[in-house]
Each structure stands twice: as C-alpha cells, then as structure tokens.
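Hello forum,

I keep getting stuck at the same step: I have a sequence, I want structure tokens, and every attempt I make locally crashes halfway through. Rather than fight my setup again tonight, could one of you with a working pipeline run this one for me? It's a single chain of 154 residues.
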Amino acid sequence: MDLTVKEVFFLTDNELLMLIHRVDKLYHEEYHKAVRLEDDSEIRGHGRILRELDHHDGMTQKALAEHMRIRPQSLTDALMRIEKLGYIERKRSEKDRREVLVTITESGRERSMMFKRISDEVICEMFSCLDREEKERLGELLEKLVKPSQQNGR
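Reply #2:
Ran it on my machine without issues. Output:
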C-alpha cells in the first residue's frame, strides 16, 4: 500500500495532545533543573505561588486557591512552608476574621523575580528553534484550541 506524504505525517488528536503535554513537561523539567542549579532550597510549586502573589498581593487564601485552581488544603501546606522561609505573611482580615490574607514580603518579591527570570530563559531557549512566523502560527493554532473553552467561561 502506498502512503501519501500527508498520510505519513498525519497525527491523531491524541498524538497532538501528547505532544503538547510533552512540551509542557519539558518546560517544567528544564525550569526546575535551572531553579535547583541556582538555589536548591526551592520548594516545588512555591515559585508559582510567589509569582501569583507578586501580581495579586493581599488576596485571601481562599481566592488564591481558586485563582490557582488548587485544593485549599494543598495551598495551606505550601503557604506554611513558604511563610517559614520569610517569603510571605499571612494574617486574619480585619473585615472578616474568618478570612486569611496572604501578602508577599520584599524577599518574596526578589524570589519571584528570580523565578520569572529563570522561566523566561527556559522559554526563550525552548522556542529558539522556531522563527518568528512559526511562533506566530503556533500561537494562532493554540489560541484556536483555547477559544471554545474561553467562550464557555472556563
């Protein structure tokens, strides 16, 4: 049976999704390797929390968990570890004592900037094999995949 070029290179939806997953996994592996090289005291996941707080400082713990789409208990555990390192502070809201507000400290901001710099370096290296047009086309295709879920409020 003769196969055309199009048939040889056709990827199924599952194969495409697995490629997207592999790119994501590669990014995270390279990012965490780079973070460990710079500072091996990093607690997995606290870079993401610090970056969120750097942009949305003073959020309630509940709102932060919802925004990051993680379980409140998982966030509580991570915040306890990060607080011990001095990167955040937690305190009860004066308006509603049931709420806990999370604020980033100056050392937390410095740490967040380090995580952002490392992330930017890893991303730049990953995408260096694509030219400008390829990046634009990839972006258009990924936006096309994301658009239906955005319209449904996800």
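The first helix runs from residue 5 to 9. If your local run keeps crashing, start a new thread with the error log.
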